[in-house]
Write a structure and sequence with these properties.
The chain is mostly helical and 225 residues long. The protein has one domain. It is built from 11 helices and no strands. The longest helix has 26 residues. It is globular, with a radius of gyration of 17 Å. Bound molecules: zinc ion. The site of zinc ion (ZN) has 6 residues, from loops. Pfam families: DUF6308. InterPro entries: DUF6308.
Length: 225
Amino acid sequence: MSSGWLGLRDLIAVLDDEHSGTALRRYFAPGAFTGSQFEALGGSPKALHRDAVVAEDLIAVELLNARVPPGVALDLLQGDLGQRISDELRKIPIGVDLSDESARTYIEDGGPAELAWRLLTNRHGVNKAIAGKLLARKRPRLIPVYDSVVACALRGRPGFWLWLHEQLRAEDLLMTRMLRKLRVEGDVPTHVSDIRIFDIVFWMRHRGDHRSRGCPGLPNVGPSL
Ligand SMILES: [Zn+2]
């Protein structure tokens, strides 16, 4: 059973598996998964909307099978919550990758991304996955998409952002380089970030087998690999 996060070797083994490129191609095949349009919906990120949550962002979250409750949606689009989230987004450059050394400043406790995440998860009906997906839509290179399937596959614990940041940087960016290789093998659209490739590979690998209770996680992954 799970005893904490998968190690870097296990992560690399999954990413290096010949099926990972195939999984990415399947995910982005036209009409296969609505989530393949998560980043693309509404066109390329417009400067006007880089720091504001707009209606298209809420639809984008639904493409990932998550839903912002209607009352929270209204507060995001025309209320105080939207204003406060914008205040935090404004402090986060658009070009920072989670693999960058500087990423930590934004995601650590008290950083703007963490503050925005806390503002969202404090609202009734907004769980960690929904909050993460909404912030990932605004800063796709910095904030990873994450849900219960991926958490289970990774044997995740709290602290996912910082954990992933460290894995991406470990051993001279080994995993980051692997994700960029997979981007080519999987013919992934350029607007899709490296960390989304990570999410999609683990989600595709585990979504069929995942059980909401008593799930053993990814099979055939462990110290022996
Ligand atoms: Zn599972």
